[in-house]
Amino acid sequence: MATNRNGPLPMYSAWAILGILFLLSIFFAFRGRMKIAHGPSGKTITRFTLLERGSHWLLASSFIILALSGLNLIFGKTLLLPIIGASAFSGLTIFGKFVHNYVGFAFMIALVLVAVLWIIHNIPNRHDIVWLLRGGGMLGGGHPPAKKFNAGQKIIFWVVIICGASLSMSGWALLNPFTTTMMADTAALSNSILGTEFATNLGPIQEQQLQTLWHSIMAVFMIVVIIAHIYIGSIGMEGALDAMTTGEVDQNWAKEHHSLWVEEVNEAGQANTKAEPAE
Ligand code: HEM
Q1: Of 7, 42, 134, 135, whose CB neighbour count within 10 A is largest?
Q2: How far, in Å, is the centroid of ligand 1 from the Cα of 156?
């Protein structure tokens, strides 16, 4: 199937990636960096443990390597080959393919770790509705209350987990060609639950073609979402990156963005202090 490299996929992917970069640039140009409204307090509160940060960075670094080596398969021939020449491009792409195949396992391990560590904080609650209605604070002034993760972050979390799992499964099918029937099974499931009329008698070649296409669609969608995530977690918001570097965030940042979480942490701290035996 030519769709992946020569058909509409590269064009839609390019529009999606350039589109999100353009939107974020416009947002940054008008809004600038989101500041801590009351300025840094100088006092910090622990946000993420070493295990949480380690899992996040394993996920992030593996994803970035997979994204770059994967994007090379979609765009490399058009963008890189004319610049670096055929032999360098061939060497780089073969190396990229091996790296992609192995780093996929690091991504899957990190995905499981992140899911287990954070799923409890990403169950939707009523505060998420308020958060979304107020555009995360862009409407109505001030920051809407949130627990450890706000609704925007919960959306990122579930996109990462669900699309990451789907990417992993289609990646598995590509690593083990002609051994899976996931696409045919999904079509059958959809026909029985949703009443669709997808063909279920897929031959092994069609199965692989659909897996390839799905893998690319999921990957590009995730890349677009993650670009927005990286923006907000780095230059977009003052004080956010500290959470994933030192694990400590400024108390004013925490109170502004995650007021209910700060209350929970303080209450737990008081309960612990009370429980400590008097000397
Ligand atoms: C250079 C790249 C990245 C930076 C600077 C970055 C930064 C951050 C920061 C600062 C947080 C914590 C936010 C908070 O305190 O609440 C965070 C959370 C998170 N990150 Fe990243 N990240 C990066 C890449 C990635 C990638 C590639 C993925 C997944 C493929 C990812 C997935 C997550 C998830 C699921 C969370 C928790 C939910 C959320 O805060 O949105 N991150 N990241």
Answers
A1: 134
A2: 9
* C-alpha closest to that of 10 among 18, 81, 64: 18
Domain contains 28: no
Q: Is 81 inside any structural domain?
A: yes
CATH of the domain at 87: 1.20.950.20
122: CA distance to ligand 1 center in Å?
14
Ligand 1 — pocket residues by CB below 6 A?
A: 47, 56, 59-60, 63-64, 114, 149, 153, 156-157, 160, 226, 229-230, 233-234, 240-241, 243-244
> CA nearest 189: which of 172, 181, 174, 168?
181
Residue 182, domain member (yes or no):
yes
Q: Count how many domains the chain has.
A: 1
Domain for residue 27, yes or no?
no
Residues 6+ apart with CB under 8 A from 1: 7, 209, 212, 213
- Check if the beta carbon of residue 102 is closer than 8 Å to that of residue 81: no
**Residue 54 is part of which domain span?**
44-258
> pLDDT digit string (tens) for 145-173?
999 999 999 999 999 999 999 999 999 99
pLDDT in tens, 239-267: 999 999 999 999 999 999 999 999 999 99
Decide: pTM greater than 0.85: yes
